Amino acid sequence: MTASAQPLTLAAEAGAGGTLLWVVLPYVSLAIFVLGHIWRYRYDKFGWTTRSSQLYERRLLRIGSPLFHFGILVVLLGHIGGLVIPKSWTEAAGISEHTYHVGAVVLGTIAGIATVGGLAILVYRRRTVGPVFSATTRNDKAMYVSLTVTIVLGLAATVAANVVGGGYDYRETISPWFRSIFYFQPDPALMSGAPVLFQLHALSALLLFAAWPFTRLVHMLTAPLGYLTRPYIVYRSRDVRLGARAPHRGWERTGS
User: Fold this and answer.
1) Where does residue 244 rank: exposed (0-12), middle (13-18), buried (19+ CB within 10 A)?
2) DSSP 8-state symbol, 52
3) Nearest to 82 by CA among 1, 4, 157, 30
4) Taking phi first (over 0 means left), then psi (-120 to 50 degrees means alpha), and beta for anything else, what does residue 122 get?
5) Dihedrals phi, psi of 209, to nearest 5 degrees
6) SS3 7
7) Are 133 and 123 in contact (CB under 8 A)?
């Protein structure tokens, strides 16, 4: 598929269906994302955690977790660069469209494969390790399904359009649509002409963001900055005898 070809789309024109998908749904998802985090922090502050399962199994976690987290970080940075930064800015910085396109496709594909691979290992670990599986809730399972669908669709869209196909410049359609949401001037016609895989990827991402505040994914929006300023934790033994050697005569502990 070339950039000038007419792609298969979910909505041929930006009618009522296009307005619902590319105007109403983004604002609903954004509102739930923001208000949901406020609600979660206010009423479930102690549940704002990943519920780590490292104590149950470490071997697979040491492989899958870094692979997934580093991969998704690169994917996130790529999305920020591609959706937020206009094409005119990169061209003004001396980066040609061809250079940007090749770099984005290569790095995006590698990062996408790493993310999918890491996620597959984490899902396999959670399914096959008994204690980890027992600690997995229905909410976790739904989150993993939604996250997997979004990532796989994004990777499939990149490969189908820019590796197997003749190329698709999403910075001419999807990126302006994304920015128009925050300008409060959404243009659904821009998304209505995008290939179906890009549309499905965008829709799955909107649904994922709407569910985000109510899953363990909330930990991605926090950083342990409090560790830098909190006081030291002092541990005291309850044993009468302290240390490995007996105290010298005259220096025995008298109790408290």
Assistant:
1) exposed
2) -
3) 157
4) alpha
5) -65, -35
6) coil
7) no
**The residue type at 1:** M
Burial of 179 (0-12, 13-18, 19+ CB in 10 A): middle
**Chain position carrying tokens 């939604």:** 146
User: In the chain, which ranges are continuous DSSP H helix?
Assistant: 16-19, 25-43, 59-84, 87-92, 97-128, 130-134, 138-158, 174-182, 188-192, 196-211
- Answer for the pair 118, 65: CB distance below 8 angstroms, yes or no: yes
| Model pTM score | 0.79
pLDDT in tens, the chain (256 residues): 444 444 445 544 556 778 999 999 999 999 999 999 999 999 988 888 777 888 888 899 999 999 999 999 999 999 999 999 998 999 888 888 889 888 888 999 999 999 999 999 999 999 999 999 998 999 999 999 999 999 999 999 999 988 887 788 899 999 999 999 999 999 999 998 899 999 999 999 999 999 999 999 998 877 666 656 767 666 666 665 555 566 666 555 655 5
